[in-house]
Amino acid sequence: MAPIVTKAASAAAPIDSSLHSGSLLGLIILILNLIVVVEVLNSERSVSSKFLWCMLIFLCPIVGIVLYFIHRLLRA
After folding, report:
1. Over the range 6-31, which residues count as b (16 or more CB within 10 Å of their CB) and which as e?
2. CA atoms within 13 A on the CB side of 15
3. pTM above the 0.85 mark?
4. Burial of residue 68, with CB atoms counted within 10 A of its CB: 0-12 exposed, 13-18 middle, 19 or more buried
5. What total of structural domains would you count in the chain?
6. What is the pLDDT of residues 15-61, one digit of tens each?
7. Residue 53 is assigned to a structural domain of this protein
């Protein structure tokens, strides 16, 4: 016979706080992505250049953001 699991037994399980830190990091990366994409779209680049920067930022968010800011600093 299988043991019966009640709500009280499942509610007593500890909450893993490491899950929350990952969601905060994801939120920060999402906000940075949106800021950089808006900045790219408002720039005076060609349409193909804007498209490639946006694709890089969406496909590799952290690398894309870092490369964009390095590229922007070198052009200034």
Report:
1. eeeeeeeeeeeeeeeeeeeeeeeeee
2. 5
3. no
4. middle
5. 1
6. 666 556 678 888 999 999 999 999 999 999 999 999 999 999 999 99
7. yes
